[in-house]
Fold Septin 9b.
Amino acid sequence: MLTGCISLFASSELGYVGIDAILEQMRRKAMKQGFEFNIMVVGQSGLGKSTLMNTLFKSKVSRRSVKTTEEERIPKTIEIKSISHDIEEKGVRMKLTVIDTPGFGDQINNENCWQPIMKFINAQYEQYLQEEINIDRKKKIPDSRVHCCIYFIPPTGHCLRPIDIEFMRHLSKVVNIVPVIAKADTLTLEERDFFKQKIGEDLRANEIDIYPQKEFDEDAEDRMINEKIREMIPFAVVGSDQEYQVNGKRLLGRKTRWGTVEVENTTHCEFAYLRDLLIRTHMQNIKDITSSIHYEMYRVRRLNENNMHPNGQPTIHANGVPEHEVLSNEM
């Protein structure tokens, strides 16, 4: 079978075919359907997770928890809470779901604290899989799969803690992880650069594959763009939903005794690079990798398990989590 590429061109003799109109058709369809994006935030209390989410989307998409006593402030177990919002900008609609994990890293013993989060992520894959294999499945399956996990690293200035390494080592296999240095304005520029370098070394030493993963670069252009991003990660970020007057302009920032830290000024922090990655340049790619890599690996494992195990035997879930634990995961 012969295949080839024919270049169509407009001329007075042949006329215009109109193949390029498919782009406008796709745009109209996407505008009608809208988009979904599910983002998880993980990190110990007090690192500004809610503030950063509100800053990213310039909306109150994440709520700070209001607690009254010290005992209530630290949950006894990791709670997983999802809040969904419909956001619209210039006619483009997006259903944004922010998944918070209060209690992570706040216990005296944080051993295996990644497991409830792993179970939650797998439970969303399982829910999507069950909808997908349903004979009377919906025309558009609701997508609750976690597309991206922002992992907040405390600004210690030293190196990654064991809890950071353990979490990212396990979870990077099932979800796109983007690590950030929280409250980066507490570090000097020299401390920040040293800390970023140490974190990069720790990630490589522990073979932690954060987003954008090198193995999924599609071509030379992708590789060049993503290599620059990989060199910058983790992003040193500052979040704020407060506006201040700076040189006659209203800007998002944090006021200090020494001046105003401008959130979107790349000479002050790297928030703008994080925003561009998540929203302006790589959002669709993040969703594609979730669907074609992470979810696909889960789906293949689950279907293989169902074929291999005889009826009546307990099925061990993908990623080593027993099925009954995944399905009984507390939301």
